[in-house]
Design a protein that fits this description.
Number of helices: 6
Radius of gyration: 19 Å
Helix content: 40-55%
Strand content: 5-15%
Largest sheet: 3 strands, mixed
Oligomer: single chain
Strand order of the largest sheet: 2-4-5
Structural class: alpha+beta
Distance between the termini: 34 Å
């Protein structure tokens, strides 16, 4: 940051690009270290630390969509964030954990989608008497009420049926993801769960 802010002298464009790459890589390493710490808690059967607060999800989704927009564009994936038609109620959650979960899921959507396809983020309120068609369309558990649901759909490679039961197991990667030589740690979905 000192170099990028030119506190220590002028930086040319090539140096600035190298510093941007270094900054992204540093953030990735910090995120991985944090995920590994959380994965160790999960493996030991300990709960993750959470701080519940009243929260508006729209700014969180805005931030996550913005974070992954450049990576999606580079891969020629159209990342669409469908803002709710009306204001949704605040929910009680840990905004940092929600941000991490949503980021992991959007990252997977971008990472595993084929170039030229689309990934979509949508948010909907489920009231006291949701229509059965909405519950089925969103693949929600029966009986869900008074919730705000965020969905991420993509045109990714999918998860083979025989691997689906393991997707939330720490360090598990589906066979087709390994066959594609796609980078991944197998941590993010276990943490999302």
């Amino acid at each position: 940051e000192l170099l990028k802010d030119e506190d220590l002298g002028d930086v040319n464009e090539a140096q600035r690009e190298a510093l941007d790459t270094l900054e992204r890589s540093t953030v990735d390493v910090l995120r991985l270290a944090s995920q590994l710490q959380d994965a160790m808690l999960i493996l030991r059967g300990e709960p993750l630390q959470m701080t519940a607060t009243a929260c508006d999800l729209v700014p969180i989704v805005d931030e996550v969509a913005g974070t992954w927009a450049v990576a999606a564009r580079r891969k020629r994936i159209r990342l669409v964030w469908k803002h709710p038609a009306r204001a949704l109620p605040t929910i009680t959650c840990d905004p940092n954990r929600v941000r991490n979960v949503l980021s992991a899921i959007v990252e997977n959507a971008v990472h595993y989608s084929r170039p030229g396809t689309r990934a979509e983020i949508c948010m909907v309120e489920i009231g006291t008497s949701p229509a059965v068609s909405v519950v089925r369309a969103l693949r929600l558990p029966l009986g869900i009420r008074n919730s705000v649901v965020v969905t991420v759909t993509d045109c990714g490679v999918g998860i083979p049926t025989q691997d689906q039961k393991h997707v939330f197991t720490p360090f598990f990667r589906a066979r087709n993801a390994r066959d594609l030589w796609a980078d991944g740690t197998g941590i993010s979905l276990a943490l999302a769960r």
